[in-house]
Structure formats: C-alpha cells, structure tokens
Write a structure and sequence with these properties.
With 166 residues, the chain is mostly helical. It is built from nine helices and no strands. 63% of the residues lie in helices and 0% in strands. The protein starts with 8 loop residues before the first helix and ends in a 6-residue tail after the last helix.
Length: 166
C-alpha cells in the first residue's frame, strides 16, 4: 500500500490468515457444532424423512395409472370408487351391482372401468377371485395356452386338494 505498490509476502499471508479466521468464526455462528433436538423435533424430522422415502401404497399407484389411462372425469370417478373397494391384496370383494347402485349408474359402466383397472400393474389387480386373477395374469403375460386356461377355469379345486389325476 505504501511505496511502489508491491506488498510483502508476509503481509499478504497475514492478511489471508486474518480473513480466514474471521470467516471461520462467522461460519460457526451460522452452523453451531452441537444442535440439540427435543423429542418433538426428532419426531418431526423422522416424519419428514418418511415422506421422502415412503413407497406409494397400492391405491396411490393404481390411482396414478388410472389418471393417465382414463378418457374422462366420469371414468376416473368410477375408477376411484372401485380402487377404494379393493382389499389389501388387490381383490375386489364388493359386487359391481352394489358399486353401480351407489354411483347411480349402469353396471356396464362399472364393468368397463374395472376391465381397465385389471390391465394395470400389478398384474391381476382388480380380480374378484383367484381364478379371475390367474386368468388376467395368463392373458397379460402372453401365456395363452388352452390347457392352462382350462385348468384355471375348471380344475383349481382339484389342484388345491392335490387331486392331480383329475
């Protein structure tokens, strides 16, 4: 600063050290080393983490597929109701007639949307029985085999009872 404008290397080094020390102190003010959390704050933190890492439920996954597959809002609303009636295994235990009556629409409209849902992942979702679930899986997986379909349609009880000769 004085004289010919050149600084001594020691002066520059001292200035750099002073600036680094000042920045380090400022940094520590913003981010203290020890942060104490109350049990409530820990619980909130754990909840936020669970939201980030949580997998979607079956219903959420199906509703997403329904949203991108429906041709109109009415079809989506019918699908929402059907998905709401699926059990934890993805089976539809409520009769279509009951769903149609509750929605005040024809059973054919409900059947049409159910058929759409039965094309979703996981394969076999929306089936009303094990037999229907297996038939949907055979169809979607391209395993179209007459004998396989006949076994599913007419011989599941025999298989269950281990009557293989039947």
């Amino acid at each position: 600063e004085e004289g010919n404008g050149e600084k001594e290397p020691e002066d520059i080094a001292d200035k750099i050290e002073e600036n680094l020390a000042r920045l380090n102190i400022e940094w520590e003010e913003y981010f203290p080393e020890e942060t104490e959390y109350s049990p409530e704050e820990e619980e909130k933190h754990a909840y936020r983490e669970s939201l980030i890492s949580r997998s979607p439920s079956l219903a959420e996954h199906l509703l997403w597929q329904l949203r991108i597959s429906c041709k109109d809002e009415k079809q989506y609303k019918i699908g929402e109701v059907i998905i709401g009636h699926l059990d934890t295994n993805g089976y539809l235990a409520t009769p279509l007639a009951e769903i149609a009556q509750n929605l005040e629409i024809g059973e054919e409209e409900v059947e049409e949307v159910l058929k759409l849902i039965q094309t979703f992942e996981p394969v076999g979702v929306g089936a009303r029985s094990l037999q229907e679930c297996l038939l949907i899986q055979v169809q979607q997986l391209g395993l179209n085999d007459f004998c396989l379909e006949e076994i599913i349609k007419f011989h599941l009880p025999d298989l269950e009872a281990k009557r293989y000769e039947q």
